[in-house]
Serine hydroxymethyltransferase
Amino acid sequence: GTSLSKLDPEIFHILVEEKDRQQCHIELIASENFTLPAVMEAAGSVLTNKYAEGYPGKRYYGGCGIVDQAETFAIERAKQLFGADHANVQPHSGSQANAAVYLSSLDAGDRILTMNLSDGGHLTHGHPMNFSGKLYEVENYGVDPETGRIDYDKVEARAKEFKPKMITVGASAYARIIDFERMAKIAHDNGALLLADIAHIAGLVATGEHPSPVPFADFVTTTTHKTLRGPRGGLILCKEEFAKKIDSAVFPGTQGGPLMHIIAAKAVCFGEALKDDFKSYQAQVRRNAKALADTLTEKGHKLVSGGTDNHLCLLDLRGTDPELTGKKAQIRLDEANITTNRNTVPGETRSPFQTSGLRLGAPAVTSRGMGEAEMVQIGIAIDKILRAPESDDAVREAKEIALDLCAKFPLPY
Ligand code: PLP
């Protein structure tokens, strides 16, 4: 036979096992979500067979008329969803989207001012091991160690001194509203361009649950697989004046053939995100993150910035137990079927491999249909383990809560 189970039982078995893992674990990784079966249908379709270098109506291959329509739907829906002048839906990932923005407007050696990684920034915002840190001269800004919030006055002072050509704003582990308007003013007053990377919060931005950077930033990049709940991929939005430069920075600048199956899946995702149900989903994501943050705070745990305005919260474990590392907490929670990721915290004293923080996000459990009452249960389960990381009884009790919730809120796969 030609089915996967017959053709390649080893890989088939992995898919079955992973589906089962997703079904019976509480997923709290803030960058993950459960996409819709319809998105997976497009992503797993015959469009994977098609080469389509170029853009709709301007391809370097024959036979592109049909996939052109898929890309045009994706572009038009993305523009409508975010109110943007121009959209490029071809970046294979969030990192590729950022690479293309840099390539469109910077030369090697140019200066960029970015948020540092341990305060919540991303690798592609100038980390020394990343191409962005190797190609450009990087200066960092961060959060105020007291408040855990971006210190805009300091960003402004840095921008005046350093005179960067571009400033980036956007984070992987920041729980508060970002003032994009202020960041754009700082950038533009100092002759810099602003890149707003909304990879994490795109779903909130699309539905008005977080202020949009689109009217202010020169470039907006995002992933499509986090709060947006689409296929894995990237997206760039920009002002009309940068449209040509962005398109040529994606292709032929940094990529070859676009993934047409993924672009069709992005179109499905954007179409869904334009519906009322998606707005109520995003509102629930925020309520759920707050319910989890409140539960943990009530139980005496410390959160960076003291709470959350968005889809995630960041636990500073030093407030729970000075000996407890993020690594240890993550491993013990894993044993209780609760999936999280360890994370550095502002003023981190441990290595990125150990860390003192734990990042907790609500998008995936909210997609399963869980609400505030379930978040309280999850908070209780997490507290049991953080209070007694050596206790097997605590793991057993937490796992019971996790399995019970998973059984009550099955995935649609
Ligand atoms: N930018 C931010 C703020 C992110 O959190 C991420 C995801 O990790 C990315 C960019 C990169 O996205 P990808 O993993 O698709 O390359």
User: Anything to note?
Assistant: DSSP finds 16 helices and 14 strands in the chain.
